[in-house]
Every structure is written in structure tokens, then in C-alpha cells.
Write a structure and sequence with these properties.
Chain lengths: 490, 328
């Protein structure tokens, strides 16, 4: 009996164990409904309208949308808007969205990246996104002027797709990059805020000569950011004449990867040309004033060094506005200035028209396939409301973001990050970022060696030229681009 | 009473069917008999095997299956989300022509060299010191102090070292200036980054290795040690002639673990320098990680992983052959 009980019990125990082990796998605890609430008629006869906005989680995103939705509800009680953070990251959001689109269950509105992203993610895959151009001329009931007048033309231009030139998204915030400086040391040494690159270098020299125990600049080269920013800011001034030479397929004053690859393949892009080589040399000059050890520092470490007063300048982006006003408030007086003008005396091809980092974020993209007939105007009305100066100001105060909307009064800290110059148009022949992360990382590695004087400028140019051609060829092979098919354009 | 494997007649067991071929020659019948014994033994302990099955299944799914998949994906060009395209040996050809990979191997060899020398000698040294303490209480206290370091998360320790190595605000330059050494770039310098990362393991006493060696020393028969003392054997002679041969198996183990660790690990390089400056601190593990998650080339990353596996197996095999443990 005992033996038989054991022989029955043992398999049962094993089955139970196996079942409990496997039950931990798979399954989706989240069962959020993807369907928007259906439209019907309201209690007062006003048609009930409802739609959904979906995005991935971001700091303050939910709070901002909830605030805007609550305010909108006060003036449009018949409109119900649901906002859901459906993923933790952009990558996960893309996977979620692909599933929704495949099942015809996409939300009416998503908050996504700007630039070409909506075209690449949706149009290229056969899905339609709403072209907002007709709405730019409509009078916004929240500003009593054309909706398009709420934005700078240069920013709107950047939001347009490079493929078809249409405005298929409206970005509501931007990332701005400035150089933060220690005002107390400036006053102590009698320095003026520099407008040009030469003036900035002269300030660095004076700080070094003063031997006050601080470094002129705390930079970072462990990751590509600081180098990428410098390359783009400088290239916007010294290499803009290359745009029409590269932009040969779409002719929209920007260029994409296939246009760039074509230019490399045909020898149009030559890193040894003075306007390209010069950017590397300027960067090396710039980094010679950086605190030692920058190669292994991150932006956080560089910023911390500045906060401790060990360096006079550092890069800062608008995300720093909030901590710099609260838990990371500098113990000294500080301010910001824009990336300086590169004058013709140091770069003869400079247009002396500086740009600043205008990375656009939190863009509304409207999916017409999900919208019922009478909802499209209501959706755009909400977006106009969201992009009105009053709401933009509230959102800026809440989340410490820099809005793309003009005419917004901001607090003193946020004011320091307001975009003053035109946004950079991503022209950049130096970082090779357009060829992919492999190329970009290779350039960073060689720049690190260059800055440490392990290689000179000629060696750097040789290495980068060779790598650029290899990466371009690899891209052509992978994507099937040839001269005959016009690098994928045919 | 139900029959058991012992009481069942041989003919009742399915594996006991004797075919015409069996029994013709003595050798076949021995092999056949052996097979029967194995099956009989398995049947006798069937419950144990059944209990092991789920674990084996999970091991197969989460450990061995990824290895097989990695080998498979190394023959594909796979950029993550999209379709994997079969490209044969192209990834392997590209890898064997890749100078960055060879640079990473060269860097890894320094880590392996250090892990297999200082990483073995220091735990041995400390274990011997602990072993020679007369007071058991003192032994316990010091052993606990050394092993307690395992409770500190590794990332925290690494970040502390990153701070120490900061040329401006860290303490390392102040420390070395006491010895007349000029300020260094440490993690930011081409000539100093690699050894800065290696040195961040100071005092190079892995608590697990220490415990392994210490336990091995404690297992040495006391009679041997007493006999050596009576024979007038000095401490150093005793360590050389008795301790090390008796714990050779454990030393071989941590030597091989050192090889595996030196080859595979990349968390320090990732956090401290991300492989830079240039490629000075890039190691194969980090290169594999970057290939997969930075460059999105999962096929190439799988290739690197598979080649690393082969190299580690080869090094382990060679180590096994060259180093004789006490039992061999």
C-alpha cells in the first residue's frame, strides 16, 4: 500500500511542480483594452466624442497629458480623451503599435518622435498618418490666429517628412543644448559672454592663466553625445554648402541615408577637404581645454564636476533646468550661452549663421484609419488646445520642458534654455552617424585617440575615410542600393 | 505485493528481450548485460530521474538551447526585429578579418593573465594565513571580514573606483603623488586605462575563491601536517610539498574559473570606459554586447559569442591537461 501510494503520489508531485514552474512563464498580466470607447450622443444633445492617445512612458508625460485633458474637459465636456502609457520604452512601443496596426486597433493619436519617424514607421509600411498642413492656416480658437503662427517656421520645417515634405506630426517640445557657465568666475576674471568660437577660446585661456584651481570646461567623451553635438553645430555653419550636393534625390534641403551613401560612393564627401577636416581640428582645440579624464566621463560626471565648481563651463540640456532649480542647484550664480559662431577667420567656408540643437520631442501623430468621421476635427482641436501658449506654459512649469510653441512666458531657469538660433538641420559630415551606430562608434573611438594625441589629423582622416567608404559599401550591399537603381530611389 | 525491478524476471523487462544477434559473442552479451543493468538501475531510481526531468528541461531551454540558437544565428544576418537572412560563413570570415576582435582578444589576455596569476595567488596566500592562525575564533573573524565583501554590490564598488580615478576630483592622483608619481589620466589615458581597470580589483581576493582554497586546506589530513612538523619541515617547505599538491584540484578549479572570468566578463569595461579610449579596454564580451545591442547586428554578436565559447573550451581543455590535480 505504501509503495503504491508513493508511486501515485510522486508523479502527482512532479506534475504539480512542473505546472507551477511553467505557470510563471508567458501570460500577459496586462489586459488593457485597446479599443476606444465608442461614440454616442451626449446627454445635452452635443455629440459625445471620444478618442485615445497612446505613447510610451516618459518623465512627466502622463502628468502633462492628464493636465491638458482635464483642462480641455472643462471647455469641451462632451469630449472624452483617454491617455495610456502602453510601454516603458520607445522600442516596446513600436512593437505594441505594430500589433495594433496589424489588428486594426490602433489608437486615434500617438505621441511619438518627430522628424521623419512617423513617415518611416507608418507611411513606409503602408499606413496613413494625417497630414496637418491644411490645419496650419486654420484659426486656432485658443490663440485667435493661424495655428501655424504658434510655431517658428524653422521648427515646422524640421518636423516635415524628408520623403514627401508633408507635416505629418506636430512636436510640442524640444531639446535645447546650451553651454552653462559659472557667472561668479566670469565676474571675478572680468570675462564677457562669448559670441564667437575665438572669444570662447580666449576666455578658456584666461581661466587657465588665472590658475584659480578650476578647469575651463568639463566635457565628456565616453559616449558620442558631446562630439556629435559639436560636429553638428560646427557643420551647420561650415558645411551647409554640401547640402544641395548631397540632396540630389529628394531635393528637400535635407538628406537621408541613401543620398549620403550616394555622395560617399561618388566621392562627393571627402573628409580631407578643409571644411570637413577643420571641424576635427577645431574639436581638438576645444577639448584641449577640457578637464583631464574626459575620455572616460559621462555627461552626468561632467555636469557634477561643474556643479562642484571644478570647471567653469559645461554642456547642459533643458532637462537640467529642473534639477538646477531644486536638488542640484549650483552654489554659484550661473547662466547659459549658445554654441558660439564660427567666424570666417578660423573657417573660411563658415556662413556665420549658428544653429542650436533643436531635437524635437513629444510629437502628436494622428492615425486617420482609427478616426471616425466627426472626430478628426475634434482631435485636431485638442492638439491646437495642447499647443496654445497657456497650456504650453502650464506644461513647461509642470515638466520643465522647452515648448516649441512661441510666445510662452517661462520661469528664469527655463528661459535660459529657450531656443534663440535656428535649429540645426542635422548636416554633419564628420560624425558619420547617418551611416549607423557602427560607423558612429568607430568615429568616436578614433576621436578619442586623436584627442589624446595617439594619432594626428592625417592619420585620423585616413582611418575615418576608409571606414566611411566601407560602411557605405556595407549599407549598399545590405539594402541592395546600386547606381543603377539610384541608390534605392527607383 | 507488486513486483519490483529486483523481483521481476529478466524476461519481463522490455529491454531484456534477447534477439538473435545477442549472445552470439561474449563481447555483445557483456555490452547487452551492461545495458540491461543501466536500464534496471534507471528504473529502480525512476522517481529521482522524474524529479530531475523538469530541471533538465529548464536547463535545456534556458541554457543549452540559447547556445544552439547562437550557433544557428551566427550563420545569419540578423538585425533584431527583421527577418534573418542566411549568409553562411560570412560572419565568421568577417570576424577572422576583424582587427577590432583581435585587439579585444589581446586586451582579454591581460585580464586572463592577471586573473590566473594574482587572482589565484592572493586567495591562496590569504587562505594560508587564515589556516595558520592558531585561534579558531580569530580565523572565524578574519574569514568573515574577507567574505563579507561579497555583500557589497559589484557595481557600487566599480563606481567608487570610477570616482577615485577621476583625475580632477578623485583621490588616486593625490595618492600616487605621495610616491612621486605625476598625475595620470587613469581611465582616460591610452596607456593607463587597461591597467586601471585591472587594478580596480585590488586587493584581488575573490571571497568565493578564498573559501574554496580555505576549505581545501582544512580538508588536508592533520596527521600529514603533524608528521611534517615532527620531521622538521619549515612552513614554506610544507606549503610547497604538502598544501599545494593536496589542494591542486581546487587551485586548478579557480585557475579555470579565472580563465572563464577573464574571457567573458565585461561589466567593468562597460561601466568604466565603454571599451575606450579607442579600443584600449575593449574585450570580446563587450564587443559582442556592442555588436548586438549598440550596432544591432545580432548575427555577428552570435558569431563572436560562439567563437568565444570555442576559445574558452580550448583553454579549459589545455589547462586540464597541463595542470595535474592531486588525484591524477
Amino acid at each position: 500500500m505504501k509503495a503504491s501510494a508513493k508511486s501515485i503520489l510522486a508523479p502527482l508531485v512532479i506534475l504539480g511542480l512542473t505546472t507551477s514552474l511553467m505557470s510563471g512563464c508567458g501570460g500577459n498580466g496586462n489586459s488593457s483594452s485597446n479599443a476606444s470607447p465608442s461614440n454616442g450622443s451626449g446627454t445635452n444633445g452635443d455629440p459625445q466624442v471620444s478618442f485615445k492617445i497612446a505613447s510610451w512612458a516618459g518623465p512627466g508625460k502622463k502628468e502633462g497629458l492628464d493636465l491638458a485633458i482635464a483642462e480641455y474637459k472643462k471647455i469641451k465636456p462632451n469630449v472624452t480623451i483617454a491617455f495610456e502609457e502602453v510601454a516603458q520604452s520607445n522600442a516596446d512601443f513600436d512593437v505594441w503599435m505594430a500589433a495594433q496596426l496589424a489588428g486594426n486597433q490602433e489608437p486615434e493619436v500617438v505621441m511619438d518622435f518627430s522628424y521623419d519617424n512617423p513617415y518611416i514607421k507608418y507611411n513606409d509600411k503602408g499606413y496613413k498618418v494625417l497630414e496637418m498642413d491644411p490645419y496650419l492656416d486654420k484659426i486656432s480658437p485658443y490663440t485667435n490666429q493661424k495655428w501655424g503662427d504658434s510655431f517658428r517656421d524653422v521648427d515646422l520645417n524640421l518636423m516635415r517628412s524628408t520623403q514627401n515634405g508633408k507635416l505629418n506630426n506636430i512636436a510640442t517640445s524640444m531639446i535645447t543644448l546650451k553651454i552653462a557657465y559659472n557667472k561668479d568666475i566670469y565676474d571675478q576674471l572680468g570675462l564677457q559672454v562669448p559670441k564667437t568660437f575665438s572669444e570662447m577660446i580666449a576666455n578658456f585661456d584666461k581661466i587657465r592663466e588665472a590658475k584659480i584651481g578650476t578647469e575651463p570646461f568639463s566635457g565628456f567623451l565616453k559616449v558620442t553625445s558631446a562630439w556629435d553635438w559639436f560636429a553638428r553645430f560646427a557643420a551647420q555653419q561650415t558645411q551647409e554648402q554640401y547640402v544641395p550636393l548631397i540632396d540630389t534625390l529628394f531635393k528637400n534641403n535635407k538628406y537621408q541615408q541613401n543620398e549620403y551613401v550616394r555622395a560617399v560612393d561618388q566621392g562627393i564627401i571627402d573628409l580631407s577637404k578643409p571644411e570637413v577636416r577643420g571641424v576635427y581640428e577645431l574639436f581638438k582645440q576645444f577639448t584641449s581645454y577640457w578637464a583631464p579624464g574626459a575620455i572616460s566621463m559621462t555627461m552626468t560626471e561632467a555636469r557634477d564636476m561643474w556643479l562642484q565648481g571644478k570647471a567653469v563651463h559645461t554642456f547642459t540640456i533643458n532637462n537640467d533646468a529642473k534639477p538646477f532649480a531644486s536638488d542640484m542647484k549650483p552654489s554659484f550664480n550661473w547662466d547659459t550661452f549658445e554654441f558660439p559662431v564660427i567666424t570666417k577667420d578660423i573657417a573660411p567656408t563658415s556662413n556665420e549663421n549658428p544653429a542650436e540643437f533643436g531635437d524635437l520631442a513629444d510629437a502628436f501623430v494622428v492615425m486617420p484609419s482609427a478616426i471616425k468621421k466627426n472626430v478628426q476635427d475634434e482631435v485636431m482641436d485638442f492638439i491646437m488646445f495642447y499647443t496654445s501658449p497657456d497650456i504650453a506654459k502650464q506644461l513647461a512649469e509642470l515638466n520643465w520642458i522647452t515648448p516649441t510653441i512661441t510666445g510662452v512666458e517661462m520661469n528664469a531657469n527655463l528661459e535660459r534654455y529657450q531656443a534663440k538660433y535656428r535649429p540645426q538641420n542635422q548636416i554633419d559630415l564628420n560624425s558619420q552617424a547617418i551611416l549607423g551606430s557602427n560607423a558612429r562608434q568607430y568615429v568616436l573611438q578614433q576621436i578619442q585617440r586623436y584627442v589624446l594625441n595617439d594619432i594626428d589629423t592625417d592619420q585620423l582622416i585616413d582611418l575615418l575615410s576608409k571606414n566611411m567608404k566601407e560602411e557605405a559599401q556595407k549599407t549598399m550591399n545590405e539594402k541592395g542600393w546600386t547606381k543603377d537603381n539610384d541608390y534605392g530611389n527607383k | 505485493m507488486l513486483p519490483t525491478a529486483e523481483t521481476l524476471p529478466l524476461s519481463a523487462l522490455p529491454e531484456a528481450r534477447v534477439g538473435p544477434a545477442c549472445g552470439k559473442t561474449g563481447e555483445s552479451s557483456h555490452v547487452h548485460q551492461y545495458r540491461i543493468n543501466v536500464f534496471r538501475s534507471m528504473y529502480r531510481y525512476k522517481h529521482a530521474y522524474l524529479f530531475l526531468l523538469p530541471l533538465l528541461a529548464l536547463l535545456g531551454i534556458f541554457s543549452y538551447y540559447p547556445i544552439v540558437m547562437a550557433l544557428k544565428m551566427s550563420f545569419y544576418q540578423w538585425k533584431g526585429g527583421n527577418e534573418a537572412i542566411f549568409i553562411g560563413l560570412d560572419n565568421f570570415v568577417a570576424l577572422f578579418k576583424d582587427q577590432t576582435f583581435y585587439a579585444s582578444l589581446k586586451n582579454a589576455s591581460w585580464f586572463i593573465l592577471f586573473d590566473c596569476t594574482v587572482g589565484v595567488l592572493m586567495p591562496l596566500f590569504i587562505a594560508e594565513l587564515l589556516f595558520h592562525l592558531k585561534s579558531a575564533r580569530a580565523q572565524y573573524v578574519f574569514r568573515t571580514l574577507f567574505v563579507a565583501t561579497i555583500t557589497v554590490p559589484t557595481v557600487i564598488v566599480i563606481l567608487v573606483w570610477v570616482f577615485l580615478y577621476n583625475p580632477v576630483v578623485g583621490g588616486m592622483n593625490s595618492l600616487v603623488s605621495l610616491f612621486g608619481i605625476s598625475p595620470q589620466l587613469w581611465l582616460g589615458g591610452t596607456n593607463t586605462a587597461l591597467f586601471s581597470i585591472i587594478f580596480s580589483g585590488f586587493p584581488f581576493i575573490n571571497p568565493i575563491y578564498l573559501l574554496i582554497v580555505f576549505a581545501a586546506l582544512q580538508a588536508i589530513p592533520k596527521s600529514l601536517i603533524e608528521a611534517s612538523v615532527m620531521e622538521g619541515c619549515g612552513t614554506w617547505r610544507r606549503i610547497r610539498s604538502i598544501d599545494i599538491p593536496m589542494i591542486a584540484g581546487q587551485l586548478k578549479l579557480i585557475f579555470i574559473l579565472g580563465i572563464l572570468h577573464g574571457m567573458q566578463s565585461f561589466y567593468k569595461q562597460l561601466i568604466m570606459t565603454n571599451g575606450g579610449p579607442g579600443e584600449e579596454t575593449l574585450v570580446p564580451g563587450l564587443y559582442m554586447y556592442q555588436s548586438g545591442f549598440t550596432y544591432n547586428d545580432f548575427g555577428y554578436a552570435s558569431t563572436i559569442g560562439f567563437v568565444m565559447l570555442i576559445l574558452m573550451l580550448a583553454l579549459t581543455f589545455v589547462s586540464n591537461k597541463l595542470i595535474k590535480s592531486g588525484n591524477e
